[in-house]
Amino acid sequence: MAAMARIFPGVFLICIILPLLASAFKDHLPEVQLANESDKNDVPIHINNVAQLSEMGEKIIKALKKKAKEQHDLDHDLIEESQPEEEAAPVTPTPVPVDPTPTPNPVPVDPTTTPNPVPGNQTPTNVPEGYPGATRAPVTIGYGGAPLTPNPSDPQTQVPVQPAPQQDLPTPEEIKEHRKRDGLQMGFYDETCPNAEKIIKEGMIRAFGNDSSIAAPIPRLLLHDCFVNGCDASLFLDQTPSGARVEKLANSNGRTVRGFDLIDEIKAELEAECPDIVSCTDLLVYLSRDAFVVSGVPHYDVPGGRRDGMESLEANVLGNLPLPDFTVDMLIDLFKKKGLNEEDLVVLIGAHSIGVAHCFSFLYRLDNPQKAALVDPRLAGVMKFTCTSPMSTLAFDTTTQYKMDSIYYKQLAGKRGLLESDVLLNEDPRTRDYIQKFGEDENGWFNKLGKAMNKLASIQVLTGDQGQIRKQCRAVN
Length: 477
Ligand code: HEM
Fold this sequence. Notes:
- The strands form two sheets. A two-stranded antiparallel ribbon has the order 1-2. It has a two-stranded antiparallel sheet with strand order 3-4.
- The protein contains 17 helices and four strands.
- Mean pLDDT is 75; it is low at 18-54 and 70-167.
- By secondary structure, it is an all-alpha fold.
- It binds protoporphyrin IX containing FE.
- One of its GO terms (biological process) is hydrogen peroxide catabolic process.
- GO terms for molecular function: heme binding; lactoperoxidase activity; metal ion binding.
Protein backbone atom coordinates (compact mmCIF):
# COMPACT_ATOMS: atom_id res chain seq x y z
CA MET A 1 0.00 0.00 0.00
CA ALA A 2 2.85 2.29 0.92
CA ALA A 3 4.50 1.62 -2.44
CA MET A 4 1.21 2.29 -4.21
CA ALA A 5 0.88 5.56 -2.36
CA ARG A 6 4.35 6.63 -3.53
CA ILE A 7 3.80 5.43 -7.12
CA PHE A 8 0.42 7.02 -7.68
CA PRO A 9 1.52 10.69 -7.48
CA GLY A 10 4.43 9.93 -9.82
CA VAL A 11 2.13 8.31 -12.42
CA PHE A 12 -0.37 11.13 -12.00
CA LEU A 13 2.38 13.66 -12.57
CA ILE A 14 3.73 11.97 -15.69
CA CYS A 15 0.41 11.24 -17.31
CA ILE A 16 -1.62 14.29 -16.44
CA ILE A 17 0.31 17.22 -14.98
CA LEU A 18 3.47 17.24 -17.04
CA PRO A 19 1.73 17.14 -20.44
CA LEU A 20 -0.60 19.87 -19.33
CA LEU A 21 2.22 22.00 -18.01
CA ALA A 22 4.27 21.41 -21.06
CA SER A 23 1.51 22.54 -23.37
CA ALA A 24 0.56 25.52 -21.18
CA PHE A 25 4.14 26.73 -20.82
CA LYS A 26 5.61 25.46 -23.98
CA ASP A 27 6.77 28.93 -24.85
CA HIS A 28 8.38 29.41 -21.46
CA LEU A 29 9.68 25.98 -20.67
CA PRO A 30 12.99 26.13 -22.49
CA GLU A 31 13.54 29.58 -21.14
CA VAL A 32 12.80 28.32 -17.63
CA GLN A 33 15.18 25.47 -17.92
CA LEU A 34 17.89 27.61 -19.39
CA ALA A 35 17.27 30.74 -17.55
CA ASN A 36 20.22 30.29 -15.23
CA GLU A 37 22.75 27.76 -14.23
CA SER A 38 21.25 27.04 -10.86
CA ASP A 39 17.93 26.07 -12.42
CA LYS A 40 19.82 23.66 -14.74
CA ASN A 41 21.51 22.06 -11.77
CA ASP A 42 18.27 21.72 -9.89
CA VAL A 43 16.67 19.58 -12.61
CA PRO A 44 18.28 16.14 -12.68
CA ILE A 45 19.03 14.82 -16.17
CA HIS A 46 18.70 11.14 -15.30
CA ILE A 47 15.38 9.95 -14.05
CA ASN A 48 16.00 6.73 -12.18
CA ASN A 49 12.59 6.11 -10.62
CA VAL A 50 9.10 7.41 -10.12
CA ALA A 51 10.03 9.20 -6.90
CA GLN A 52 12.70 11.07 -8.74
CA LEU A 53 10.16 11.93 -11.40
CA SER A 54 7.74 13.28 -8.85
CA GLU A 55 10.56 15.26 -7.26
CA MET A 56 11.51 16.69 -10.58
CA GLY A 57 7.90 17.72 -11.28
CA GLU A 58 7.80 19.64 -8.04
CA LYS A 59 11.05 21.35 -8.91
CA ILE A 60 9.74 22.32 -12.33
CA ILE A 61 6.62 23.77 -10.77
CA LYS A 62 8.75 25.71 -8.28
CA ALA A 63 10.91 27.01 -11.08
CA LEU A 64 7.84 28.01 -13.06
CA LYS A 65 6.39 29.83 -10.09
CA LYS A 66 9.68 31.61 -9.47
CA LYS A 67 9.87 32.65 -13.09
CA ALA A 68 6.28 33.80 -13.15
CA LYS A 69 6.94 35.94 -10.08
CA GLU A 70 10.01 37.46 -11.68
CA GLN A 71 7.98 38.18 -14.79
CA HIS A 72 5.25 39.80 -12.69
CA ASP A 73 7.76 41.97 -10.89
CA LEU A 74 9.34 42.96 -14.16
CA ASP A 75 5.94 43.84 -15.69
CA HIS A 76 5.10 45.90 -12.64
CA ASP A 77 8.40 47.81 -12.84
CA LEU A 78 7.79 48.49 -16.50
CA ILE A 79 4.27 49.77 -15.84
CA GLU A 80 5.59 52.06 -13.15
CA GLU A 81 8.32 53.41 -15.40
CA SER A 82 5.79 54.22 -18.09
CA GLN A 83 3.43 56.08 -15.67
CA PRO A 84 3.77 59.83 -15.03
CA GLU A 85 5.23 60.70 -11.59
CA GLU A 86 1.99 61.74 -9.90
CA GLU A 87 0.10 58.64 -10.92
CA ALA A 88 2.64 56.40 -9.26
CA ALA A 89 0.78 56.90 -6.04
CA PRO A 90 1.17 54.41 -3.23
CA VAL A 91 -0.85 51.33 -3.92
CA THR A 92 -2.30 51.04 -0.43
CA PRO A 93 -5.34 53.38 -0.26
CA THR A 94 -4.99 56.18 2.26
CA PRO A 95 -7.86 56.05 4.71
CA VAL A 96 -10.22 59.06 4.47
CA PRO A 97 -9.60 61.14 7.57
CA VAL A 98 -12.60 60.99 9.86
CA ASP A 99 -12.98 63.84 12.30
CA PRO A 100 -13.89 62.20 15.58
CA THR A 101 -15.19 65.45 17.06
CA PRO A 102 -18.82 66.09 16.23
CA THR A 103 -19.56 69.12 14.11
CA PRO A 104 -20.86 71.88 16.34
CA ASN A 105 -24.46 72.89 16.07
CA PRO A 106 -26.21 69.59 15.63
CA VAL A 107 -29.42 70.43 13.90
CA PRO A 108 -32.16 67.88 14.14
CA VAL A 109 -33.03 66.82 10.64
CA ASP A 110 -36.70 66.43 10.11
CA PRO A 111 -36.87 63.28 8.06
CA THR A 112 -40.34 64.03 6.83
CA THR A 113 -39.17 67.10 4.99
CA THR A 114 -36.09 65.62 3.36
CA PRO A 115 -36.82 64.24 -0.11
CA ASN A 116 -35.03 61.12 -1.28
CA PRO A 117 -31.89 62.34 -2.94
CA VAL A 118 -30.65 60.93 -6.21
CA PRO A 119 -27.50 59.00 -5.29
CA GLY A 120 -24.48 61.14 -5.80
CA ASN A 121 -26.54 64.19 -6.57
CA GLN A 122 -25.38 67.01 -4.33
CA THR A 123 -28.27 69.36 -4.97
CA PRO A 124 -29.59 70.94 -1.77
CA THR A 125 -32.35 69.18 0.06
CA ASN A 126 -35.17 70.79 1.94
CA VAL A 127 -34.44 71.40 5.57
CA PRO A 128 -36.87 72.95 7.96
CA GLU A 129 -37.27 76.57 7.04
CA GLY A 130 -34.91 78.90 8.76
CA TYR A 131 -32.37 76.34 9.90
CA PRO A 132 -28.79 77.27 9.19
CA GLY A 133 -27.65 75.71 6.01
CA ALA A 134 -30.95 75.43 4.22
CA THR A 135 -28.80 74.32 1.26
CA ARG A 136 -27.09 71.46 3.03
CA ALA A 137 -26.13 68.28 1.23
CA PRO A 138 -28.11 65.09 1.85
CA VAL A 139 -27.31 63.30 5.06
CA THR A 140 -24.73 60.62 4.39
CA ILE A 141 -23.69 57.82 6.66
CA GLY A 142 -20.14 56.61 6.35
CA TYR A 143 -18.16 56.87 3.15
CA GLY A 144 -18.42 55.55 -0.33
CA GLY A 145 -22.11 54.84 -0.52
CA ALA A 146 -25.02 56.70 -1.93
CA PRO A 147 -26.40 59.39 0.33
CA LEU A 148 -28.76 57.84 2.79
CA THR A 149 -31.79 59.80 3.74
CA PRO A 150 -33.31 59.09 7.13
CA ASN A 151 -36.53 57.20 6.70
CA PRO A 152 -38.75 57.20 9.76
CA SER A 153 -40.24 53.77 8.97
CA ASP A 154 -36.85 52.14 8.41
CA PRO A 155 -34.80 51.66 11.58
CA GLN A 156 -31.71 51.12 9.43
CA THR A 157 -31.78 54.67 8.23
CA GLN A 158 -33.03 56.41 11.29
CA VAL A 159 -30.56 59.08 12.21
CA PRO A 160 -31.83 60.95 15.23
CA VAL A 161 -29.43 63.86 15.07
CA GLN A 162 -27.07 64.62 12.27
CA PRO A 163 -24.45 67.31 12.43
CA ALA A 164 -24.93 70.00 9.81
CA PRO A 165 -22.27 69.74 7.13
CA GLN A 166 -19.28 71.90 7.84
CA GLN A 167 -19.51 73.96 4.68
CA ASP A 168 -22.90 75.38 5.62
CA LEU A 169 -21.79 76.68 8.98
CA PRO A 170 -19.48 79.60 9.53
CA THR A 171 -15.90 78.53 10.02
CA PRO A 172 -14.28 79.20 13.41
CA GLU A 173 -12.32 82.00 11.73
CA GLU A 174 -15.52 83.59 10.45
CA ILE A 175 -17.10 83.39 13.88
CA LYS A 176 -14.01 84.94 15.46
CA GLU A 177 -13.99 87.70 12.89
CA HIS A 178 -17.69 88.27 13.44
CA ARG A 179 -17.21 88.58 17.17
CA LYS A 180 -14.40 91.04 16.76
CA ARG A 181 -16.59 93.55 14.95
CA ASP A 182 -16.85 96.53 17.14
CA GLY A 183 -20.13 98.10 18.06
CA LEU A 184 -23.64 96.89 17.64
CA GLN A 185 -25.25 96.07 14.35
CA MET A 186 -28.55 95.02 12.89
CA GLY A 187 -28.72 91.39 11.85
CA PHE A 188 -25.69 90.62 14.01
CA TYR A 189 -26.59 86.92 14.16
CA ASP A 190 -27.68 86.54 10.54
CA GLU A 191 -24.64 84.42 9.68
CA THR A 192 -23.77 82.83 12.99
CA CYS A 193 -27.22 82.05 14.37
CA PRO A 194 -29.89 83.00 11.86
CA ASN A 195 -32.68 81.67 14.07
CA ALA A 196 -31.67 83.56 17.21
CA GLU A 197 -34.27 86.31 17.04
CA LYS A 198 -36.93 83.82 15.96
CA ILE A 199 -36.22 81.53 18.91
CA ILE A 200 -36.39 84.47 21.30
CA LYS A 201 -39.61 85.81 19.82
CA GLU A 202 -41.26 82.39 19.90
CA GLY A 203 -40.12 81.98 23.49
CA MET A 204 -41.89 85.19 24.42
CA ILE A 205 -45.05 84.33 22.47
CA ARG A 206 -45.19 80.91 24.12
CA ALA A 207 -44.62 82.31 27.62
CA PHE A 208 -47.13 85.10 27.09
CA GLY A 209 -49.67 82.53 25.90
CA ASN A 210 -49.29 80.70 29.21
CA ASP A 211 -49.12 83.77 31.43
CA SER A 212 -49.86 87.28 30.17
CA SER A 213 -48.09 88.83 33.16
CA ILE A 214 -44.70 87.57 31.94
CA ALA A 215 -44.16 90.38 29.41
CA ALA A 216 -43.91 93.26 31.89
CA PRO A 217 -40.96 92.10 34.03
CA ILE A 218 -38.66 91.69 31.02
CA PRO A 219 -38.16 95.34 29.96
CA ARG A 220 -37.82 96.13 33.64
CA LEU A 221 -34.94 93.63 33.83
CA LEU A 222 -33.34 95.50 30.96
CA LEU A 223 -33.56 98.81 32.79
CA HIS A 224 -32.14 97.28 35.95
CA ASP A 225 -29.33 95.58 34.10
CA CYS A 226 -28.32 98.47 31.84
CA PHE A 227 -28.36 101.16 34.54
CA VAL A 228 -25.98 99.18 36.74
CA ASN A 229 -22.57 98.83 35.15
CA GLY A 230 -24.01 98.91 31.63
CA CYS A 231 -25.96 96.31 29.67
CA ASP A 232 -23.97 93.16 30.43
CA ALA A 233 -26.48 90.71 31.93
CA SER A 234 -24.73 91.13 35.30
CA LEU A 235 -28.19 91.18 36.86
CA PHE A 236 -28.63 87.51 35.93
CA LEU A 237 -25.60 86.25 37.85
CA ASP A 238 -26.34 84.23 40.98
CA GLN A 239 -22.77 84.58 42.15
CA THR A 240 -19.51 86.22 41.19
CA PRO A 241 -16.05 84.64 41.09
CA SER A 242 -15.12 86.95 44.02
CA GLY A 243 -17.98 85.59 46.11
CA ALA A 244 -19.32 89.10 46.84
CA ARG A 245 -23.05 89.75 47.01
CA VAL A 246 -24.57 90.10 43.57
CA GLU A 247 -26.81 92.78 42.04
CA LYS A 248 -29.97 90.75 42.23
CA LEU A 249 -29.72 90.70 46.04
CA ALA A 250 -29.91 94.49 46.26
CA ASN A 251 -33.10 95.94 47.82
CA SER A 252 -34.15 97.74 44.66
CA ASN A 253 -34.07 94.44 42.79
CA GLY A 254 -34.82 91.92 45.46
CA ARG A 255 -38.21 90.37 45.36
CA THR A 256 -39.64 92.61 42.67
CA VAL A 257 -37.54 91.65 39.66
CA ARG A 258 -38.61 88.48 37.93
CA GLY A 259 -38.42 86.69 34.60
CA PHE A 260 -35.13 84.86 35.18
CA ASP A 261 -36.66 81.45 34.51
CA LEU A 262 -37.87 82.51 31.10
CA ILE A 263 -34.40 83.83 30.31
CA ASP A 264 -32.87 80.47 31.33
CA GLU A 265 -35.36 78.57 29.20
CA ILE A 266 -34.72 80.59 26.05
CA LYS A 267 -30.98 80.68 26.62
CA ALA A 268 -30.98 76.86 26.71
CA GLU A 269 -32.78 76.81 23.37
CA LEU A 270 -30.27 79.22 21.90
CA GLU A 271 -27.37 77.12 23.15
CA ALA A 272 -28.91 74.03 21.60
CA GLU A 273 -29.26 75.81 18.27
CA CYS A 274 -25.90 77.60 18.20
CA PRO A 275 -23.66 77.12 21.20
CA ASP A 276 -21.60 80.03 22.51
CA ILE A 277 -22.97 82.53 20.02
CA VAL A 278 -25.83 84.56 21.50
CA SER A 279 -25.07 86.54 24.64
CA CYS A 280 -27.44 86.71 27.58
CA THR A 281 -27.37 90.48 27.17
CA ASP A 282 -28.60 90.36 23.58
CA LEU A 283 -31.18 87.79 24.62
CA LEU A 284 -32.54 90.23 27.18
CA VAL A 285 -32.58 93.10 24.71
CA TYR A 286 -34.44 91.15 22.00
CA LEU A 287 -36.80 89.65 24.54
CA SER A 288 -37.67 93.12 25.88
CA ARG A 289 -38.59 94.20 22.38
CA ASP A 290 -40.71 91.09 21.96
CA ALA A 291 -42.37 91.67 25.33
CA PHE A 292 -43.50 95.04 24.05
CA VAL A 293 -44.56 93.58 20.72
CA VAL A 294 -46.79 90.92 22.27
CA SER A 295 -48.26 93.74 24.34
CA GLY A 296 -49.23 95.74 21.28
CA VAL A 297 -46.18 97.79 20.29
CA PRO A 298 -45.32 97.60 16.56
CA HIS A 299 -42.11 95.69 15.78
CA TYR A 300 -38.90 97.70 15.76
CA ASP A 301 -35.41 96.57 14.81
CA VAL A 302 -32.82 96.00 17.48
CA PRO A 303 -29.09 95.74 16.85
CA GLY A 304 -27.09 92.91 18.41
CA GLY A 305 -23.48 92.24 19.34
CA ARG A 306 -23.43 92.76 23.09
CA ARG A 307 -21.33 90.48 25.23
CA ASP A 308 -21.78 89.39 28.82
CA GLY A 309 -20.02 90.82 31.85
CA MET A 310 -17.96 88.79 34.29
CA GLU A 311 -18.98 90.32 37.59
CA SER A 312 -22.04 91.46 39.46
CA LEU A 313 -21.83 93.49 42.66
CA GLU A 314 -24.63 94.57 44.90
CA ALA A 315 -22.52 97.61 45.79
CA ASN A 316 -22.88 98.90 42.20
CA VAL A 317 -26.67 99.09 42.42
CA LEU A 318 -26.93 101.86 44.97
CA GLY A 319 -27.44 105.22 43.27
CA ASN A 320 -27.84 103.70 39.82
CA LEU A 321 -31.48 102.64 39.87
CA PRO A 322 -34.45 105.02 40.04
CA LEU A 323 -36.73 104.70 43.03
CA PRO A 324 -40.44 105.51 43.19
CA ASP A 325 -39.87 108.39 45.60
CA PHE A 326 -37.29 110.10 43.36
CA THR A 327 -37.89 113.76 42.48
CA VAL A 328 -37.90 114.85 38.86
CA ASP A 329 -34.45 116.38 39.35
CA MET A 330 -33.13 113.05 40.56
CA LEU A 331 -34.76 111.19 37.68
CA ILE A 332 -33.44 113.60 35.06
CA ASP A 333 -29.94 113.54 36.57
CA LEU A 334 -29.82 109.77 36.70
CA PHE A 335 -31.13 109.35 33.16
CA LYS A 336 -28.70 112.00 31.89
CA LYS A 337 -25.80 110.08 33.47
CA LYS A 338 -26.93 107.10 31.39
CA GLY A 339 -27.10 109.12 28.18
CA LEU A 340 -30.89 109.54 28.17
CA ASN A 341 -32.68 112.89 27.99
CA GLU A 342 -35.98 114.11 29.44
CA GLU A 343 -37.98 112.91 26.48
CA ASP A 344 -36.41 109.44 26.71
CA LEU A 345 -37.33 109.39 30.37
CA VAL A 346 -41.00 110.07 29.68
CA VAL A 347 -41.08 107.73 26.70
CA LEU A 348 -39.62 104.89 28.76
CA ILE A 349 -41.82 105.21 31.83
CA GLY A 350 -44.66 104.52 29.39
CA ALA A 351 -43.58 100.91 30.02
CA HIS A 352 -45.64 101.22 33.19
CA SER A 353 -48.62 100.80 30.90
CA ILE A 354 -48.16 97.08 31.63
CA GLY A 355 -47.37 95.21 34.81
CA VAL A 356 -47.87 95.64 38.48
CA ALA A 357 -46.38 97.32 41.52
CA HIS A 358 -46.24 96.01 45.05
CA CYS A 359 -48.07 98.02 47.64
CA PHE A 360 -44.87 98.94 49.47
CA SER A 361 -43.87 100.85 46.32
CA PHE A 362 -46.77 103.34 46.47
CA LEU A 363 -48.95 102.97 49.58
CA TYR A 364 -46.69 105.31 51.60
CA ARG A 365 -48.04 108.17 49.46
CA LEU A 366 -51.31 108.15 51.37
CA ASP A 367 -49.55 108.67 54.69
CA ASN A 368 -48.26 112.12 53.77
CA PRO A 369 -50.93 114.78 53.03
CA GLN A 370 -48.67 116.60 50.55
CA LYS A 371 -48.05 113.41 48.60
CA ALA A 372 -51.61 112.21 49.00
CA ALA A 373 -52.75 115.38 47.26
CA LEU A 374 -51.28 113.98 44.08
CA VAL A 375 -53.36 110.78 44.28
CA ASP A 376 -56.83 110.78 42.73
CA PRO A 377 -59.28 109.92 45.58
CA ARG A 378 -60.75 107.02 43.61
CA LEU A 379 -57.30 105.56 43.11
CA ALA A 380 -56.57 106.08 46.82
CA GLY A 381 -59.68 104.01 47.55
CA VAL A 382 -58.49 101.19 45.26
CA MET A 383 -55.05 101.30 46.89
CA LYS A 384 -56.49 100.94 50.37
CA PHE A 385 -58.89 98.23 49.28
CA THR A 386 -56.23 96.19 47.46
CA CYS A 387 -53.27 96.59 49.77
CA THR A 388 -54.07 94.10 52.46
CA SER A 389 -50.31 93.58 52.80
CA PRO A 390 -47.21 95.43 51.56
CA MET A 391 -46.64 92.50 49.22
CA SER A 392 -50.06 92.81 47.55
CA THR A 393 -49.90 94.03 43.98
CA LEU A 394 -51.89 96.43 41.87
CA ALA A 395 -51.78 96.92 38.12
CA PHE A 396 -50.30 100.22 36.92
CA ASP A 397 -53.09 100.50 34.37
CA THR A 398 -56.13 98.75 35.75
CA THR A 399 -58.06 99.16 32.50
CA THR A 400 -55.58 97.50 30.11
CA GLN A 401 -53.03 95.76 32.31
CA TYR A 402 -51.48 93.62 29.55
CA LYS A 403 -51.59 96.18 26.77
CA MET A 404 -49.02 98.79 25.93
CA ASP A 405 -51.11 101.84 25.12
CA SER A 406 -51.11 105.53 25.82
CA ILE A 407 -53.88 105.29 28.39
CA TYR A 408 -51.26 105.33 31.14
CA TYR A 409 -50.13 108.85 30.11
CA LYS A 410 -53.75 110.04 30.37
CA GLN A 411 -53.98 108.48 33.79
CA LEU A 412 -50.80 110.30 34.87
CA ALA A 413 -52.28 113.57 33.68
CA GLY A 414 -55.32 112.79 35.84
CA LYS A 415 -53.23 111.93 38.97
CA ARG A 416 -54.15 108.32 38.60
CA GLY A 417 -50.61 107.02 38.39
CA LEU A 418 -49.47 104.48 40.98
CA LEU A 419 -45.90 105.70 41.36
CA GLU A 420 -45.08 109.04 42.87
CA SER A 421 -42.14 109.46 40.49
CA ASP A 422 -44.38 108.97 37.46
CA VAL A 423 -47.01 111.45 38.64
CA LEU A 424 -44.36 114.07 39.42
CA LEU A 425 -43.31 114.04 35.76
CA ASN A 426 -46.70 115.55 35.00
CA GLU A 427 -46.04 118.35 37.47
CA ASP A 428 -42.70 119.47 36.04
CA PRO A 429 -42.45 121.81 33.05
CA ARG A 430 -39.45 119.88 31.65
CA THR A 431 -41.47 116.71 31.24
CA ARG A 432 -45.17 117.62 31.38
CA ASP A 433 -45.56 118.36 27.68
CA TYR A 434 -44.29 114.93 26.71
CA ILE A 435 -46.86 113.30 28.98
CA GLN A 436 -49.64 115.31 27.34
CA LYS A 437 -48.30 114.64 23.84
CA PHE A 438 -47.89 110.86 24.20
CA GLY A 439 -51.30 110.62 25.87
CA GLU A 440 -52.82 111.94 22.66
CA ASP A 441 -50.52 110.36 20.10
CA GLU A 442 -50.00 106.68 20.75
CA ASN A 443 -48.26 106.02 17.43
CA GLY A 444 -45.92 108.95 18.02
CA TRP A 445 -45.03 107.38 21.37
CA PHE A 446 -44.56 103.92 19.84
CA ASN A 447 -42.22 105.45 17.33
CA LYS A 448 -40.12 107.07 20.05
CA LEU A 449 -40.27 103.96 22.22
CA GLY A 450 -38.21 101.80 19.85
CA LYS A 451 -35.54 104.47 19.61
CA ALA A 452 -35.40 105.10 23.35
CA MET A 453 -35.25 101.37 24.07
CA ASN A 454 -32.32 101.03 21.68
CA LYS A 455 -30.60 103.91 23.49
CA LEU A 456 -31.22 102.19 26.82
CA ALA A 457 -29.89 98.91 25.42
CA SER A 458 -26.67 100.58 24.25
CA ILE A 459 -25.47 101.82 27.65
CA GLN A 460 -21.83 100.83 28.27
CA VAL A 461 -22.13 97.68 26.21
CA LEU A 462 -19.34 95.15 25.92
CA THR A 463 -18.55 94.27 22.31
CA GLY A 464 -15.80 92.71 20.20
CA ASP A 465 -13.46 90.72 22.42
CA GLN A 466 -14.75 92.17 25.69
CA GLY A 467 -16.54 90.03 28.24
CA GLN A 468 -17.74 86.63 27.14
CA ILE A 469 -20.71 84.74 25.77
CA ARG A 470 -22.07 82.99 28.81
CA LYS A 471 -23.25 79.41 28.40
CA GLN A 472 -25.72 79.91 31.23
CA CYS A 473 -27.00 83.32 32.15
CA ARG A 474 -26.72 82.71 35.90
CA ALA A 475 -22.99 82.00 35.98
CA VAL A 476 -19.83 83.16 34.26
CA ASN A 477 -18.17 80.48 32.13
C1 HEM B 1 -38.21 106.43 35.69
C2 HEM B 1 -37.96 105.74 36.69
C3 HEM B 1 -38.61 104.46 37.08
C4 HEM B 1 -39.00 104.14 38.31
C5 HEM B 1 -38.86 105.01 39.53
C6 HEM B 1 -39.58 102.84 38.26
C7 HEM B 1 -40.07 102.15 39.34
C8 HEM B 1 -40.78 101.01 39.27
C9 HEM B 1 -41.40 100.38 40.36
C10 HEM B 1 -41.34 100.87 41.80
C11 HEM B 1 -42.04 99.29 39.94
C12 HEM B 1 -42.86 98.33 40.74
C13 HEM B 1 -41.97 97.36 41.47
C14 HEM B 1 -42.79 96.50 42.38
O1 HEM B 1 -43.25 97.02 43.36
O2 HEM B 1 -43.00 95.32 42.07
C15 HEM B 1 -41.81 99.22 38.55
C16 HEM B 1 -42.31 98.25 37.76
C17 HEM B 1 -42.10 98.23 36.44
N1 HEM B 1 -41.25 99.03 35.74
FE1 HEM B 1 -40.44 100.72 36.34
N2 HEM B 1 -39.54 102.39 37.01
C18 HEM B 1 -38.94 103.34 36.25
C19 HEM B 1 -38.67 103.25 34.94
C20 HEM B 1 -38.96 102.18 34.16
C21 HEM B 1 -38.53 102.01 32.85
C22 HEM B 1 -37.61 102.96 32.11
C23 HEM B 1 -39.04 100.84 32.43
C24 HEM B 1 -38.87 100.15 31.11
C25 HEM B 1 -38.18 100.53 30.13
C26 HEM B 1 -39.82 100.30 33.50
C27 HEM B 1 -40.56 99.16 33.42
C28 HEM B 1 -41.31 98.65 34.45
C29 HEM B 1 -42.25 97.59 34.31
C30 HEM B 1 -42.65 96.95 33.01
C31 HEM B 1 -42.72 97.30 35.56
C32 HEM B 1 -43.74 96.23 35.94
C33 HEM B 1 -42.96 94.98 36.33
C34 HEM B 1 -43.83 93.79 36.72
O3 HEM B 1 -45.02 93.74 36.46
O4 HEM B 1 -43.24 92.85 37.28
N3 HEM B 1 -39.71 101.12 34.55
N4 HEM B 1 -41.03 100.28 38.17
